[in-house]
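Example record

One chain of 354 residues, shown exactly as stored in the release files.
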Amino acid sequence: MRIKVTFLLLLALLGYKSLAQQLTLQQANHLASLPIKCLQQEYPNKLNQMLLDSTEIEAPKKLHPAFYGCFDWHSSVHGHWSLVYLLNNFENLDNKEDIIKKLQTNLSKENIAQEILYFSKNHEKSFERTYGWNWLLKLQLELEKSPKDFAKPLAENLKPLSNLIINRYIEFLPKLLYPVRVGTHTNTAFGLSNAWDYAVFSNNTMLQNAIKEHAIRMFGVDTNCPFVWEPSGTDFLSPCLEEMGLMQRILPKKEFLQWLKKFAPNLANKNFKWEVAKVSDRTDGHLVHLDGLNFSRAWNFYHLIKQYPKEFSHLKPLADYHFQFSLPSIVDGNYEGEHWLASFALRAFEEKNN
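Predicted structure tokens for this chain:
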């Protein structure tokens, strides 16, 4: 096992620079191997569950037959997204049929119905709000836009749960009087970004209007985001850049650039530098979050550069630096990072190469 891990680490160290330019089939196969391994691995597991009484104590697979693997519910969801994304982009992906079978097993109509029952409990209204909700709609989008034969039935199976989540967003956002600005799961800006993308893709004007109205209410007057405060000790999201990424989505060019000039004037500086986040112990499930922060910074920089290259192309080396720095950690053999980091790397790659 140690030899295998060492070999994979060396492979990543040799190949991560090329990944920043182009994802090869070999590298795609390796990134796929991580969610494949944990998608139906029930333990270890962290249940974010409220118990009313002892009758609710059940095994993870019984509670969440679709999304019980990969340590926790949301990591399972974005593990599913990773595999659908790779299937959509690599025709000759290894173990393709096995991956599809796992997706078909987990995302069956019956399993999604059970997930809906869990979400429908009165005391679970806030379950996975809004981080898991956000990733679920990204999975729904990836399935719906897929040209592959396997994807349409799975999209139809998942759609009732996605519709429930959409209704939860519309119900919840007016009640959220103040945004959550942390660099972890409850970050409000990140929790709306994938949801916005799906709302646009699916032409859901009610969800678009809800996100836009409340994002402007919560973030529209923000100025001088304190970049020097980042990172906090266990961040995997950048509060400043996630807010920027959301406002970039919902505002037209002129309004966004005016807002960004006040919110993050330092980004216009051609010599802007930002040190990567460093992890002291990758066997610690919280400290390893900082590798995810590097990927999330990268995907927001790439998103900005792609839409506004004239204004922000000077940030590309910085985005690449963050992306490349944490890539080797995906293959370090520690489950604390393996069960979710591949999704974050692929998310950054998606923004870079769309």
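Notes: The two ends are 36 Å apart (CA to CA).
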